[in-house]
Specification:
alpha/beta; 8 strands; eight-stranded parallel β-barrel
Length: 295
């Protein structure tokens, strides 16, 4: 019985990917802590390991993030499944990233700026470069920003994993997720919309304030109506309920935030009826609201 419970817990925790942008630089609307200190990184990654969180998301462009992960893994003789990202003009830096990460093999390499892949020939070129690192990479994918990018890249069977910005407000992906091929794996990031959906009004960019106030009122209403612990619980449960989302990226800034993950992960699921209510009640928002680069 104990083994069955442990197996179920492991399966639940296997869905989490720890976002590590904050290990390299200040990231997210709520991050007042700047870069995370070395001692805190040790505490965070120790906690992750003890709680069956085996995936880390990083990028070549996240400053010292890859190096700090590699240092931890070397010092504590530990290993994670690493997902790292490269802009199309930086793919040749894979060997350097392997060295920084202290790894021989990366779980997945994602293209970080897929908007630069415009033609079939661009894909062929990327394929050619990546073929040199065949033995060092398990899966190739893309960190995409729009359904348009997904529809273009999924035609090329070369891309197996797509990381998408998906949250309670972002209805652009619903149809695509419903019709997803089994051979494609979808990972959700930005489930709190880079912290905007769990911040105070004072941290909200001024151009978004009108929409922000409407959204926050609706989230508060749904939290009470659906008996969720807080807004984070509602936002996480909404994404977690979607069976077409294989993994969820959660960025953290400190040990307190990672310590909350087991609590939210083991909360009861939203029902189908709850999901229908959410879809009816959540307001439609502008593309600017959904796109942090436009804030």
């Amino acid at each position: 019985n104990k083994k069955i419970i442990e197996k179920k817990i492991k399966e639940k925790f296997d869905k989490i990917i720890l976002g590590t942008a904050q290990l390299g630089f200040q990231y997210g609307i709520n991050n007042q802590n700047k870069k995370i200190k070395k001692k805190d990184i040790t505490d965070i990654l120790n906690f992750a390991k003890k709680n069956y969180i085996n995936y880390l998301d990083t990028a070549e462009g996240y400053k010292s993030s890859e190096k700090r992960i590699g240092e931890y893994c070397k010092n504590y003789k530990s290993s994670f499944n690493i997902i790292t990202k490269f802009n199309t003009n930086k793919i040749s830096k894979i060997r350097l990233s392997l060295k920084k990460l202290n790894l021989k093999k990366i779980f997945s390499v994602l293209i970080h700026n897929p908007s630069q892949i415009k033609t079939r020939f661009d894909v062929i070129n990327i394929k050619k470069i990546l073929s040199k690192y065949k033995s060092n990479i398990s899966f190739i994918g893309a960190s995409i920003n729009s359904p348009k990018e997904y529809l273009f890249l999924k035609k090329h069977k070369f891309f197996k994993i797509f990381q998408i910005p998906y949250n309670i407000l972002d209805i652009r992906w619903n149809k695509l997720l419903k019709n997803k091929k089994k051979s494609i794996e979808i990972h959700a990031r930005s489930i709190f919309l880079q912290g905007l959906l769990i911040t105070d009004q004072k941290n909200c960019p001024s151009k978004l304030k009108k929409e922000f106030n409407i959204v926050i009122k609706k989230l508060s209403y749904l939290r009470k109506k659906l008996n969720r612990f807080d807004e984070k619980d509602l936002l996480f449960s909404y994404v977690n309920k979607n069976s077409n989302i294989k993994k969820i990226v959660i960025g953290i800034e400190n040990i307190d935030q990672i310590a909350q993950i087991p609590f939210y992960l083991l909360r009861k699921d939203l029902t189908n009826s709850d999901m229908r209510l959410v879809k009816r009640k959540m307001p439609k928002v502008s593309n600017d609201f959904l796109t942090p680069s436009n804030w």
